Amino acid sequence: MVQKTVIFTELFLIVFLVTCCKPEINKASPDEVKRTKPDLVIYDPTGGLPREWTDPNFFWLNEQTLVLKTGNDDLLATWTSERLDPHLHRITCSRSEDQGRTWSEPLYIDGEGVGAGGTAAWQVPVLSPSGRIYLFYNYSPKSGAGSFCGGFRCRTSDDGGTIWSAPADLNFPRSPIDNPDTERSSKWISVSLPTFTKSGRALLGFTRWADNPDVPCGASGIKERYSHIEFMRFENLSKIPDAANVELTWLNLDNPITVPHENCPSASFAQEPYLVYLPDGRIFMTMRTNQGQAWYAVSADEGETWSLPQPMRYKDGGALMLHPVTPCPVFALDSGEYMFLFNNNDGYVFGAESRWDGHNRRPAFVSRGEYRSEAEQPIWWSSPRLLIDNDAIPWGPDGMGRLEAAAYPSMTHGSKGNILWYPDRKGFLVGKYITDEIFHGMKVPE
């Protein structure tokens, strides 16, 4: 009888523990903000409490973390926020006055549910020489227009992002790959901060997606659709124009940068450029493709024209730098060296069924780069080293969990050195100090 009582008690205890201590997998856990071991936190969407994924006030999806140094050591972070039910897109910002240790409450600038705003996404902040901030982004007056909502809108701020001007809708030129119906906006996205040329003008690369069934792969699904890279240049920001009077030059509208589409030879698949300057004055660009590698191109005339894109290698004639269809940013470091952030796989890992699959967007690896003046590829790279991972723990409701490690990041430079700002699984917005220790022993080929 005693033995039966003990067995019953043990069974009761097991049931009690399983029932009462089972993690709430149907809720968003605030503990996940620590998953990638960040040094700094811009934004934790949970607010430190378990949240229901369907909570209409829970903007659990946050991406394209572009952080700008606005003066002294003040920082402005901007990103695109989304919620699940109903699905909304908003442009969001937050400010820090202590080098990123603490941040202001998020401010929704534009988008669905903000005043009379429609769909707003994919913001790019530009700091003018005067200190005025120009914020450019996709916009559609229609709610529910989706991520590729087209349009081209601008707002300005003269106080570091606390107060923003009324919006101005700018003209975005059409391309032969756009839909023949002129009522349908161009499909474009820019994911990085601009690069200021030697002449002091801001140069911004962007992806234009086809929406024309007469173009090869011009009406395919998002994973196969034709895409190429173009550049816009802001001409008069030094004159402090208001949002409606920004002057732009569209550099290669008729001669875009293309990369052969892996599955459709007559189409292009070139997306999401990132730029750095080389010591010789040229500009080096990395881009994502669907070839299973990152590609690069070089400009000797401040982005007017570009070399023929090539697969990126660790050195001339060396191994290819493998990468799926996800951002592959290059950054200039304070040391004069370079950092390349990539996933170090060709896309078909962890059960991924295509190169565009969330399973292959982790972990994030880093390579250290050095300039090679006599080389065909002007930056050579060290072997990769693991930098960021989330242990393959998804963030999001069942069937919608994200796994991206550090996709769509940015970097700032200040008294604390280089800081990489990144979205963890497109949810938490966090930062990591990029220290010399990270690159210790990472030798670049001579």
Question: What do these coordinates show?
Answer:
This protein has 446 residues and is mainly β. The protein has a domain at 1-169. 4% of the residues lie in helices and 36% in strands. The chain contains 1 helix and 30 strands. It has one helix at residues 2-21, and strands at residues 27-28, 40-43, 51-52, 61-71, 74-83, 88-96, 107-111, 119-127, 133-140, 153-157, 168-169, 187-189, 195-196, 202-209, 227-234, 248-250, 260-261, 264-268, 271-277, 283-288, 295-299, 310-311, 330-332, 338-342, 364-371, 379-381, 385-388, 410-414, 417-424, 428-434. Strands 12, 13, 14, 15 and 16 form a 5-stranded antiparallel sheet that branches. Strands 23, 24, 25, 26 and 27 form a 5-stranded antiparallel sheet that branches. Strand 13 and strand 14 (202-209) form a beta hairpin. The radius of gyration is 23 Å and the shape is globular. The N and C termini lie far apart (79 Å).
Quaternary state reads single chain
Major sheet: size, sense and barrel closure?
A: 5 strands, antiparallel
Give the N-terminus to C-terminus distance in angstroms. Answer: 79 Å
In DSSP terms (H or I, runs of 4 or more residues), the helix count works out at 1
- Which band does the percent of strand residues land in? 35-45%
Please identify the structural class as seen in this structure: mainly beta
User: So what's the overall shape?
Assistant: globular
> Rg from C-alpha positions?
23 Å
Fraction of residues in helix: under 10%
- pLDDT under 50 segments (min length 5)? 1-24
E-strand count: 30
Average pLDDT, to the nearest integer? 92
